[in-house]
Amino acid sequence: MNMSQHWEWINPWFFWFLVLLPLLFYWLYHNIGKERPFMRYSMAGILSRRKTWRNRLWDLTVWFLPLVLLMMIVAGAGPRNVESGKRIKKTKGIDIILAVDVSGSMLAKDFKPNRLEALKRTAIDFIRRRPNDRIGLVVYAGEAFTKVPLTTDKRIVENAIRKINFQTLSKQIDQGTAIGMGLAVAVNRLKDSKAKSKVIILMTDGVNNTGAIDPETALELAKQFGIKVYTIGIGTNGVAPMPLVDRYGNIVGYSPQKVEIDERLLKKIAKETGGQYYRATNSAKLKRIYDEIDKLEKTVIEETRFYNYTEWFRPFVWIALLLLSIIWIIRQIILPSKI
Predict the structure, then answer these.
(1) How far is the C-alpha of 33 from the C-alpha of 23, rounded, in Å?
(2) 313-329 and 53-77 are packed helices; what angle lies between their axes, rounded to 10 degrees?
(3) What's the half-sphere exposure (Cβ side, CA atoms, 13 Å) at 98?
């Protein structure tokens, strides 16, 4: 349960009456002393220049009047403290598996700084915007394996994504891309999920050219278990600078190579599972794709809000009444109008 407090005014328009304060001050300044109690002396000219304690006390009560007006204005504005809270009841959310192609071509520099780093940034940003969902990570190249099973601990998923680096990818340079295996492992992670919605975001920058499970078989499995697949083809149109790696796993240069993405397959997987296919040709487009998927897949959260009000007008009313009482006592009892 989340709690918060803030101050508010029920009738803020009451503060318009504050314009009366300068007028009242002006009137008092020009009229003070005219109604103070007086004594008749034959030498009034001499005594008029001397203020007695009675005169000062009478004048003090006059200056109480602006305070009374101020207190009444504040009370009329209706100050109150509002304590609000909400109880959140999470419905069965969305289980999401990110299936990431980690073949060596993900080091291509048609994205800034390369495909891998662009994907990592956008994927982590996407994860942070899904606080109520379970997310897992599957990586694949020539083979596929679960890097992180479904979890609500987003830090684990973020750290796993960050750890995908050159050393991880350089070993996959010549092992091909097993899209079918990546999809099948992701399906396996979701098939027993009780979530109201099960989603795979499958990312690749190539074509299926290896693996023990073909993409068609993996597609049928996804359909069987009611899993929606969003597919993303990563790579610019035309050619892209691909990494050249020596036998020790070091990048020795880049060579322009044609970008080949099996868009027909990716579109089919998305369409038949109720998802969508996207083509990311640069970092900005990749971010927009994740933003769109984030909007399409929203978890329903039930919230019950309540408010507790503490009224604060009474203290100001009591202060005003106290000041009026003091004025009455001084003028009617201590200092009668005439002596």
Answers:
(1) 18
(2) 160
(3) 27
Residue type, 177: T
What is the strand order of the sheet 277-280 is part of? 144-151, 134-140, 94-101, 197-204, 228-234, 277-280
- At residue 217, what are phi and psi to the nearest 5 degrees? -65, -45
Structural tokens at position 41: 């002396």
- Report in angstroms the alpha-carbon separations of 153 from 131, 132, 136, 150: 9, 10, 10, 9
CATH (residue range 92-299): 3.40.50.410
pLDDT digits (tens, 9 = 90+) for 275-329: 999 999 999 999 999 999 998 887 665 556 677 878 888 898 999 899 888 888 8
What does the domain layout of the chain look like in residue ranges? 2-84+306-334, 92-299
For residue 148, give both structure tokens: 């992180």
Query: Model confidence at 247, in pLDDT bands (50, 70, 90)?
Result: confident
Q: How many whole angstroms separate alpha carbon 144 and alpha carbon 218?
A: 13
Counting residues of the chain whose pLDDT is more than 70, the rounded percentage is: 83
Preceding peptide of 66 cis, ω within 30°: no
Helix (H, G, I), strand (E, B) or coil at 112: coil
Token pair, residue 287, equals: 């971010």
**C-alpha R_g of the chain:** 38
> How many of the other CB atoms lie within 10 Å of CB of 144?
27
